[in-house]
Amino acid sequence: MPLVVTLLMLVAPLIHPYIVGAVVILLSVILYTIHKTHYLAISVAVLALLYGIGFIPVTAFIGPMMMMVWGEFIARILNNHVPDTLAFAAGSVAGIAVTMMYCQQLDWLVGIIAVVVLLMLRSILTNREDASMIGLLGSAMTITLFYDLDFTYDTTMLALAVAVCAGFAYFAYRAKTVDASGVFAAVLFGIILITFAGVPWFLIVISFFILGSFFTKYRYAEKVFLGVEQGKSGRRGYMNAFANALVGVAGAILFGITGNEVFIALFLGCIATATADTLASEIGVTGGTPYMITTLKPVPAGTNGGVTVLGELACLLGAVIICGLAFLLEVAPWYICVIGVIAGFVGTNVDSLIGALIENKGVIGNSGTNLLATLSGGLFAMAAYWVAVTVSASFF
Predict the structure, then answer these.
(1) Which pTM was predicted?
(2) For residues 254 and 238, what is the distance between their CA atoms, to the nearest angstrom?
C-alpha cells in the first residue's frame, strides 16, 4: 500500500485532476467490492471526487493518504522498539513533507497541523471501523482550510510553538491531567494560538488548563463520595478542550488575520467563561446545598443547573484571574478585561441555565453545554465591546 500511494503521489501532479479523480474513483469501487474495505474505499473515492472537481488541492488529496499509510507502515516496522504513536507520527511527518515538497506546495504550518489533527483523530477513534475514513477526510479538510487562510507566519515562532506545546502536553500527560486525545487537542490549539496570535495568548489558555486541572483535584475524594468527580480520575480529553477553548481559538485566528480588537473580546469572553465555569463547578460543588438556578429550590450536589454562593464567588475569581493575566500580558486593554470579567460571569450562569433547561432533558451532554456557554460568553463580550465603542464614539 505505501508504494501504491507513493506512485499515485508521483503521477497525480502530472495528469489532469479529472483523469486522476476518475481513475482513483474506479479503483476505489474495485477496492470496495473485492477487499471489503468499505470505509477506506469510500474516503479515497470522496477525496478523488473533491480533487477532480477542483475543490481541494493536490496536497489535500494525496497528503492524508501518504500520512496514513506511511505512518502505519513505520509503526508496524518499529513495533516493540518505539512507542506506536511516536512511530506513526514520524511516518506521517515524512509522508506529508515529501508530498508537499514534490507537489511544490510546502507549508510547514499546514503540514504540522494536519499531522496533529490526524494523530488526534487516531487517538479518539481507536478500534473503530471508520477510523481511516474520518482520519483521511478530517486531515484533508484541515489542509484545505489552512491553505485557504494563506496566513503569513514566522517559521521560528512556529518551531517554538511546536516545541513548547509538545513539551507542555507531554508533562500534562505524565501528570495524568489529560488523556491521549487531550494531548493532541492541546498541541493543536497551542500551535494555532502561538502562530496566529502570539505566546501571551497561549499562556492565557494554558492558565485555564492549569487552573482547571488543579481544581479538578481539589477535594477530589469528597467529589468521588458525592459522585460528581471528573471522569478518568480527573483526566480531561479532547471533548473538554474543544468545548472550552474552540471559540477562543477561533477568536485568536480571526484576530491574527484581521487585527480587530473585537476578536480579543471574543477570545477573552470565551476563556474567562471556561475558567469561571470550571472553578464554579469544581469549587462550588463542595460549597453546601446547591439551588436550581431556575427555581431556587434545593437540589442534590452535581445537579445540572444547581448553583451555590461559593460557586458564584469562585466563578468571579476565575474570570478575574484570566482577565487580570490578559491585562498583565498586554493581550487586552483594561476595558476589554472588565468586559471579559462580566462575560465570564454571564457565560457561567448561561451554562447553569442550559444545564437546567436543556441538558437535564438529555438533549445535549456536558460538553455541548460548555460549548454553548463559552460561545455565549464570547458573543456577550463582542456585543459589550461594540456597545462600549459606539457609546464612547458618540461622546468623544
Answers:
(1) 0.87
(2) 22
Exposure letters 73-99 (e unless 16+ CB within 10 A, then b): bbbeebeeeeebbebbbbbbbebbbbb
Report whether 349 contacts 383 (CB < 8 A): no
Domain ranges of the chain: 1-150, 153-396
C-alpha cell at 151: 496566513
The overall average pLDDT reported for the chain is 90
Position 196, amino acid? F
User: Which value, to the nearest 10 degrees, does the dihedral of the CA atoms of residues 209, 215, 216, 222 take?
Assistant: 180
Are 86 and 19 in contact, with CB atoms under 8 Å apart? no
Strand, helix or coil for residue 151 = coil
Which cell numbers in the block locate residue 141? Answer: 479538510
What is the distance between the alpha carbons of residues 225 and 243, in angstroms, rounded to a whole number? 26
Round to whole Å and give the CA distance between 154 and 158: 6
- Identify the residue with better confidence: 221 or 108: 108
pLDDT band at 396 (very low <50, low <70, confident <90, very high): low
Q: Specify whether the CB–CB gap between 206 and 187 falls below 8 A.
A: no
Q: Is the pLDDT of residue 231 over 60?
A: no
d(CA 250, CA 247): 5
Residues 6, 66: contact at Cβ < 8 Å?
A: yes
Burial class (CB in 10 A: 0-12, 13-18, 19+), 179: buried
Which helix (H) or strand (E) segment holds residue 132: the answer is helix 131-149
The tens digit of pLDDT for each residue in 347-381 reads 999 999 999 999 988 889 889 999 999 999 999 99
For residue 246, pLDDT beyond 90: yes
